[in-house]
Amino acid sequence: MKRSVAAHLAALSIDATSDEPLYRQLYFAIREAILSGRLKPGQRLPASRSLAADLKLSRNTVVTAFDQLVAEGYIDGRTGAGTYVSSTLPEELLNARMAGNGKASHKSRRRGPSKRGAYLASIGGRGATRPRAFSPGLPELVEFPFEEWGRLLGRRWRRPPRSFLVGNDPIGYAPLRNAIATYLGAARAVRCSPDQVIIVSGAQQALDLTARVLIDPGDTVWMEEPGFHGMRGALLAAGAKLAPVPVDDEGLSVTAGQEIAPEARLACVSPSHQYPLGITMSLPRRLELLEWARVADAFILEDDYDSEYRYRGRPLAALQGLDEEGRVIYIGTMSKVMFPGLRIGYMVVPDDLVDAFRAIRILIDTHPSSIAQAALADFITEGFLSAHIRRMRSLYEERQQSLIKSVSAHLGGILSIEPQDAGMHLLGMLDDRFTDIEFAKRAGDSGIQAPALSAFYDTSPKQNGFLLGYAGVDEKEINDGTKALAAVFADA
After folding, report:
1. 114, part of any domain
2. Which pLDDT band holds residue 104 (cuts at 50, 70, 90)?
């Protein structure tokens, strides 16, 4: 037995040219031999001097490796009696390791997410991808005023107060909340005090936080049909029961919602520019929705994701500004007006819910970057945000026209496309000869991101087409993208 152990260890491969220290190589080699079962519990190891000679290593190298193995419980050093593989290693652990080196045992436990986790993962998808045509919701990045933004960040970083370095208010930096409250009042007719504004790490976190605060497992929630899968995922993660409510020419149908799920606890809407259809909710429908919430003792989540970009007249007033009962939770984001990597969004909540949102906000994370919040407050109050939005509104209107012309030139007879008064994407309605899910995948394989409209339905899709984002791609990219999309259909 002693000879076999010595022979086995003498055959260990130690690479003197490797960057890995020699003692670490020896440590890992012996550890693996123990865990794989090649060295058994209770077996005696060669003396350090003898092993050093066999491996042509210094004795100090062997002693250092042995010391590490002793410290971690793989071997025991017995004074005057030598060094042994630990006899206290759990046999079942060694057996599991040995079984893992061959075919998986039918008795081994299946690893992976729960069924619920797997379903939520399928909704979440792969996350952000590199900018390309026609990514919906992607803003223009090249034209952002980085010089001014960098100057504001630098000013805040040079002498940051201690509070910026150790933490901040969970609901956000007070001057930023004040700046956002002022901005929303002027630009969106939102009625709120700074105390009602909560700073979050993007709109998705706002959706998740709202679901945590307002939804118990099993509660029913109205979802626009079709609607945003990020919202759907946040609600399902909270255990909500979703009730898909159809969207007509005036927005979410309150009448249909009352028939489908009269006991709903929450209604989730994007009234200024419904995602993905682009419909603006009419004033009578807004008042009807607010009245439903009052009578049903329910809440309304207003996702105001890209309302700044309206090309005909002034941006429409928010639904929240009509709320007299404290029923509306308003959500906005800087991802569409600045850049997605900033990861700052905001929400406006009724006064009586602020404490609950604050407490549960801490359970998710304490706050976004204090420095970024301070720089953003300066960016707003010094007029840079409003100026940037004005420039982008003009640019995006031009790009919408470029997309319409390019689709007409290269995809006529396949896609029909109409201008919209607002937003950052258009719908390209697909000829019935084609299926949007299939061709969205083909387009993705060709480097074109054109999400299928039918994928936004929770029930049977009622429409067949693509979401074509135009804000973040220049005229050449738009033209090249439509040509590439046309080639996908030509190969069909």
Report:
1. no
2. very low
